[in-house]
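Recap quiz, item 2
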Amino acid sequence: MSSRALPYRPHNHDACVSHALAEARAICQQQNARLTPTRERVLELIWQSHKPLGAYDVLAKLTSEGHNAAPPTVYRALDFLQQYGLVHRIASLNAFTGCTHAGKHHTGMFLICRACGNVLELMESSVTTAIENAASAEAFQPEAITLEVAGLCPGCQADQHHE
Amino acid sequence: MSSRALPYRPHNHDACVSHALAEARAICQQQNARLTPTRERVLELIWQSHKPLGAYDVLAKLTSEGHNAAPPTVYRALDFLQQYGLVHRIASLNAFTGCTHAGKHHTGMFLICRACGNVLELMESSVTTAIENAASAEAFQPEAITLEVAGLCPGCQADQHHE
DNA sequence: CAAGGTTTGCAACATTATAACATTTGCAGG
DNA sequence: CCTGCAAATGTTATAATGTTGCAAACCTTG
């Protein structure tokens, strides 16, 4: 099924990661933002994991590779990466995931599989529009949208059957 | 402007609270669930506040009225109330708010004012449908939707101007 | 009342996030 | 070059949020 979204198919994830890093470097250069080694490494760690990583997961990985890091190190890097739209925070998981639409203006919609933990980020203008319409019907001025859908991804639905 | 949603207008909030409590009692009775004094008091405290309350805010109020409570007391009550759809957890705030559509099956959409902290819960089937369509286009099976919109409520938009 | 499940009390602990302040680094202007 | 400022990082401590495990109290229901 080639129409299935990327994270749900086998693929060369290393290529994903290096593509994301290259893009991040480009975006930061364009905006005169400094993608320092720590920030870049945090971004890479987050991309390497196929599931969202908690801040303390990132911290543990940094520590295990000899980086002398404390919580603020990680949170600051994450703040930076979020600011430039390179990672997203998943509020319902207290975790972070690489942005798959970096650079584009968008409100992400996250499909979070409760079984395998994978997250797929969508950019659906129809959804955004519906939300904005509902908000403006109440004269509410939206600034940030958090939209996270928990459920079962295609692969894990299949697994349910032969258990 | 009488079309403006209730939380944004002055109103007798005590009446809201007692209405919500009465409804909660009815729902619990119907489902053979025990709305014990602690649970009821927690629900009441949450409703009395016009902003979402953190678990530790609830705990502090309980403590201040002589209730010998610890964190688990509050979290257990909140779990119960969530389970019966009487309160919602706002993931982006780590806080809880009374459900204004208790008893009805729904996925809430929350409009959260960043200035005054008020939260309006909407039930918009058009939004839900758009989300479900986007999910099923990816063969994803949704189970729970977290939808929280941060921004400015009508009142606080007005306040912006004469500052 | 006796048995069994549900609810609560309680202590300790785990996880997530921030504050405050010192130090280092990168870089623009003299 | 160097100096001085802003940005970034290091470091320590602490705050805020949430959980585990076990024992005691409490309803129900036979």
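Chain A is about 45% helix and 20% strand.
Residues 17 and 47 of chain A are 6 Å apart (CA to CA).
End of item.
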